[in-house]
Specification:
576 residues; alpha+beta; Nucleotidyltransferase, domain 5; 6-stranded mixed β-sheet; 5-stranded mixed β-sheet; 14 helices; globular
């Protein structure tokens, strides 16, 4: 079976591509259960493990309940990890392994299959923004290959916007065939606004479809938010999206009640956890979504919703906290949105719109930008279904409340936005979609130039299109071809103490990163007394390798390759 996984902060999705029907479909792990599976693990007093809905339905006090493990995989601050109930015995990595292993077994069982042919799992695009978060890829690969025992060549890690783009472009072909009775392929740009439980990822991807069953997808721009942070009350908040919003509503409602106005609130208190779970279930119901929409649309568009805060508080719903019924008003819902979400979303959308305007010469906020059918906008993720999120984005992009005929969403909008990432990952796992790789950052070394001065040279540059596993050597003159005479030459490889890293197109601002003793041990056996060329490559999962080759040689087998798969072990990240 070819499986695609969207490992979400609050909900995950598993999907498969059926080669016989040529259709991609979500996997229901148990008959009658929703396709979106809670990202929850529960360990009872006897050590038995439950995941998904089997875990979410357990009582918090009778065992150990683990959430948000994906967002904590990269976390280096032990106090943040401990604040969410993890310890040395139950780490975010171990819990992630339990969750993936249980649900992969259930996926195979659901289709009476016994083997995973290829698996594609997704990570947030913002994990590529800095070295502190890049380890998530190697951690997931290690879990799946070393601990769950899937052969390493059968596991691929891609970004969520790459997977979502694969699905939306695939869906475009199906929709145009269904609606217009003719097969059309999408060639153009997709603006993906992915709002989940933990992260906001906004990405501009370029899609090139052959029309013959394959397409190439390249991430051109991206921004977002989702770091774990401490709020004004000292509570540790996971991410900056759906989880942050729900915690904000529950916290505010409790503090607005007479009984608990002056009480301290612990986010790890079982009473608070159960209150957030109860309120989340209420908020996600279709009836509740309709209530919120009906109430706020009476004030007009999003910028007018603030008028509701001047009205007498009206009850929206309720939850139980410490045996007391806590009311939640419509005003509380919107106030929490403004405090936790509005500014972050507006700032990131403003940033991506600026980049689109500069690079594509299109105003993404104008409906006419989609007239040529080469620019589309798609909402992705569960929190993208929040009425306030949609209303704010509709206003920013000048869309009517009924936006389905807007050329920027026509044939691309879908009711499967929560499943788009897993469905796209399944298409990639089945080789239905080929991804064009672009470098997430620049990486290189210092070397002396012709005058003897030291300067940085880069083998791979930020947003450079790269062929997976092909070495790119550092060149004296980047304007000329890669040939032995143009490559930077090193005489003493054991003198390498730093790599140069830069997460932008400004190569002059590259940062020297000191190598750790572990990494220096890998380099200590490099040959001396020779002249060498050095370069870097990127594999299908964006893991970088360091290559050395005797100067003048073209045969890669004559050199040595060192896989750079764990950045916290490679570099001293304390100064990052």
């Amino acid at each position: 079976m070819n499986i695609g996984i969207d490992l979400g902060s609050t909900y995950s999705g598993f999907a498969r591509y059926d080669k016989d029907s040529k259709l991609v479909e979500p996997i229901a792990l148990k008959e009658g259960e929703p396709f979106s599976i809670p990202s929850v693990v529960y360990v009872d007093s006897k050590g038995k493990v439950y995941t998904g809905y089997g875990a979410k339905n357990k009582k918090v006090r009778t065992g150990r309940f683990f959430e948000y493990f994906k967002m904590l995989l990269n976390e280096k601050d032990e106090s943040v990890i401990a604040s969410r109930g993890y310890d040395d015995n139950y780490t975010p990595r171990k819990i992630t392994k339990m969750y993936l292993e249980n649900n992969l077994k259930a996926s195979l069982k659901a289709y009476n299959d016994s083997k995973i042919e290829k698996l594609c799992i997704c990570v947030p695009e913002i994990w590529n923004d800095e070295l502190n978060t890049l380890d998530g890829r190697s951690i997931l690969i290690d879990i799946l290959t070393k601990e769950i025992d899937i052969p390493i060549g059968h596991v691929q890690v891609v970004t969520e916007p790459e997977a979502a783009s694969a699905f939306f472009a695939f869906n475009y072909e199906k929709e145009t065939e269904r609606v217009e009775a003719k097969h059309k392929t999408f060639n153009g740009y997709l603006l993906l606004i992915d709002y989940g439980g933990g992260t906001l990822d906004i990405s501009l991807t370029e899609v090139k479809s052959s029309g013959q069953g394959s397409m190439e997808i390249c991430c051109r721009e991206g921004c977002g938010a989702g770091e774990n942070h401490i709020d004004s009350e000292g509570n540790r908040i996971v991410g900056n999206a759906g989880v942050s919003y729900i915690l904000g509503v529950v916290y505010s409602a409790i503090k607005e009640s007479e009984e608990f106005r002056d009480s301290a609130i612990d986010f790890l208190d079982p009473d608070f956890i159960e209150a957030t779970r109860e309120f989340e279930s209420t908020l996600k119901s279709s009836e509740s979504m309709d209530l919120i929409e009906d109430y706020f649309t009476q004030f007009g568009s999003y910028s007018d919703f603030g008028e509701a805060l001047n009205q007498k508080a009206e009850d929206f719903g309720e939850f139980t906290y410490k045996d007391e019924v806590i009311s939640v008003s419509f005003q509380c819902l919107f106030r929490a949105y403004k405090q936790n979400i509005e500014t972050v979303l507006a700032a990131q959308v403003r940033e991506i719109n600026k980049r689109i305007q500069e690079n594509l010469k299109k105003n993404p906020c104008s409906p006419s930008s989609g007239n040529n059918d080469d620019f589309k906008i798609a909402l992705v993720g569960g929190f993208g279904g929040c009425f306030f999120v949609k209303a704010q984005l509709y206003e920013i992009y000048n869309m009517d409340a009924n936006a389905k005929n807007d050329p920027r969403v026509k044939h691309i909008s879908t009711n499967k936005k929560e499943l788009a990432i897993s469905l796209g990952a399944a298409l990639i796992a089945a080789d239905r979609v080929r991804l064009q790789k672009t470098a997430k950052y620049s990486i290189g070394l210092y070397a002396s130039d012709a005058s003897g001065r030291f300067k940085p040279y880069y083998g791979i540059k930020y947003h450079q299109i790269v062929v997976p596993n092909k070495p790119y050597f550092m060149l004296r003159d980047d304007s000329k071809r890669d040939e032995p005479g143009n490559r930077v030459v090193y005489a003493n490889l054991t003198g390498i103490k730093q790599f140069m890293i830069e997460f932008s197109g400004n190569l002059d601002s590259g940062r020297p990163m000191s190598l750790t003793p572990v990494m220096l041990d890998k380099l200590k056996d490099l040959p001396e007394m020779h002249f060498w060329n050095c370069g870097f490559s990127v594999d299908d999962s964006d893991v970088v390798s360091f290559h050395i080759l005797p100067s003048g040689s073209e045969d890669i087998s004559n050199g040595k390759t060192i896989r750079l798969d764990n950045y916290s072990k490679m570099f001293n990240l304390s100064a990052w």
